[in-house]
Write a structure and sequence with these properties.
It contains 22 helices and 17 strands. It is an alpha/beta fold. The two termini are 29 Å apart.
């Protein structure tokens, strides 16, 4: 990795991108020069929808509002101040949303030290735990751009039932909901029926670009964040968007594009410990869902620490992020990343959105659609309506049932080894349809498997991954192998008004995801934990044995 401090940096409004020029100049021809010669900075700042080709033009024309949504979002500030004062007694804020509706508020509140419960799961244990926490002091933010997100609808039903069962009237229960959605969505009508406050989002901004719209600002403001500062930071940065020099978004986008077209199409994301917490998860969705299509894409790999396995290699670009303006070596072993992006959070959001749009132009993909996301949803609906018997496992080892793909050994050790041996020059993805808090140790699989495989390994919690890296896994380069981990539900929870439970929905989502991947000829090893605690421990031990 290069010495960041030796080269020039692009800076604007307190945000600095180090190392991008060196990455770009290492290519046979400068990607940045090519972008400038096409007039991309000025055209993008002017919302030119032709930048991504004729096929993308119609959608791009309706999805470029993120470039200045921070200005329109100021119109929300009086409503947010009034809403925060009105609901001051409801100090437990629950955000029920998926993907772009949840990831930005989670980063904002984690970074600024404000409490927010993010409910982006159908795991019945995780949902039940949220329902049991300070119910009488809870305000639930229902966030869905389309208004039809099945997870968020299920959360609404569960919370409404819980409020009513606690003795609230329907009017009292309605006060405990705030709805964030696009104008005219089905959720807007539901909010009216509930008697809930509705905050309309910017319809010209797609979900994963919506950090500085109502989707990011409403839950953050209710949690106690001074959101005006985020808008100010983005506003200051926006002055650089049309420039050919000192344009951090252009520098970062050109570096991402140059690296990807030159063979470094995996991006290892590392927090440098200087004041921004969890941004990697938000960047992961933005990059993966925006670029992973038509057999192309940039695969983000979120690392636990700078020296974690899976962050180096000839096809990996290492990028750190943080709040301090002088990154240097990130903590944990003196690692110096290829590129460092440092500056305030509001500016980070806008810089990464701009860079992702630029990288899409370099790759030749539409960064605003997600053509392969609906397949898993359709599979889920079909499986929920099916009465087909479950397939038997290939084998059972203590607390783990093994469902090996065709051509793989059926035992646990053999199936794991076969999966890793087949990674080759590709990548491995762990898809964990579990409780991300109660089963948090499952995340330790990522660095262990990366160390055993010597290749990039991603980790995602299901079903939130379906709204993030799921698009890349299905639409990006078909070089992945997949380890799906599911778990037995000991205490299920019915979804009120529906003929299924949360556990059944979660299982159907996992099965629908498997079908979508297998239908593309990608190998999926499913491991089902009949006892989650024992199964996670057993699986971690089995992976450790692969390294001995």
């Amino acid at each position: 990795m290069s010495d960041l401090l030796a080269g020039p940096a692009d800076a604007s409004a307190g945000l600095v991108v180090h190392g991008a020029d060196a990455v770009d100049r290492s290519a046979p021809a400068s990607t940045r020069d090519a972008l400038v010669s096409r007039g991309v900075p000025a055209r993008l700042a002017a919302k030119d929808p032709t930048l991504w080709g004729p096929a993308a033009e119609a959608e791009a024309a309706t999805r470029l509002g993120w470039l200045d949504t921070h200005r329109r979002s100021r119109e929300l500030l009086p409503q947010l101040a009034e809403l925060t004062a009105e609901l001051a007694d409801l100090d437990h804020v629950v955000l029920a949303g998926m993907g772009g509706s949840a990831l930005a508020p989670e980063v904002i509140t984690r970074t600024l030290g404000r409490p927010l419960t993010v409910l982006d799961t159908t795991d019945p244990g995780q949902v039940r735990a949220a329902l049991a926490d300070r119910l009488e002091r809870t305000v639930v933010v229902l966030a869905s751009k389309s208004g039809g997100t099945v997870e968020t609808d299920s959360h609404r039903r569960a919370y409404l039932r819980a409020f009513l069962d606690a003795g609230m009237t329907e009017a009292e229960a309605g006060r405990h909901f705030v709805v964030v959605t696009d104008p005219g969505s089905p959720l807007e009508s539901v909010a009216a029926e509930l008697g809930a406050v509705t905050v309309l989002a910017d319809p010209r901004v797609g979900g994963r670009y919506s950090a500085l719209t109502a989707f990011g600002l409403v839950p953050a403001a209710l949690a106690g964040v001074e959101v005006t500062e985020l808008l100010d930071q983005a506003e200051a940065l926006s002055e650089s968007l049309a420039r050919e020099t000192d344009n951090p978004g252009l520098a970062l986008g050109a570096a991402l594009g140059a690296a990807a077209t030159g063979g470094r199409d995996k991006v290892a994301l590392i927090g440098d410990g200087t004041g921004i917490d969890g941004l990697g998860d938000w960047i992961e969705q933005l990059l993966a869902e925006s670029t992973g299509k038509s057999g192309l894409g940039i695969l983000p790999v979120v690392l636990e620490s700078p020296d974690a396995p899976g962050g180096t290699g000839p096809d990996v670009l290492t990028v750190s992020y943080g709040g301090a303006l002088s990154p240097g070596a990130v903590p944990g072993g003196g690692c110096v990343p290829d590129v460092a992006v440092n500056g305030p959070l509001g500016a980070q959001f806008l810089t990464w959105e701009y860079a992702t749009a630029v990288a899409g132009a370099v790759l030749g993909v539409n960064p605003f659609d997600q053509p392969d996301v609906t397949e898993s949803k359709e599979n889920t609906a079909r499986i929920l309506a099916s009465t087909a018997p479950a397939e038997p496992p290939s084998s059972t080892a203590d607390a783990i049932e093994v469902y090996a793909p065709a051509g793989s050994p059926g035992d646990l050790a053999g199936a794991l080894r076969h999966l890793l041996d087949g990674v080759g020059d590709g990548y491995l993805a762990v898809l964990a349809y579990l409780d991300r808090f109660a089963d948090a140790d499952a995340a330790r699989l990522r660095p262990l498997l990366a160390g055993a495989a010597g290749r990039p390994v991603t980790f995602g919690w299901g079903p939130r991954l379906l709204h993030s890296t799921g698009q890349y896994h299905k639409g990006g380069p078909q070089v992945g192998r997949y380890l799906q981990v599911t778990g037995t539900v000991d205490n299920d929870l019915h979804v009120p008004g529906k003929p299924y439970s949360f556990g059944e929905l979660q299982a159907a989502q996992a099965a629908g995801d498997r079908q979508a991947l297998a239908g593309r000829g990608r190998p999926v090893l499913r491991l089902h934990l009949t006892d989650r605690v024992a199964g996670v421990a057993q699986l971690l031990d089995a992976v450790r044995q692969l390294r001995t």
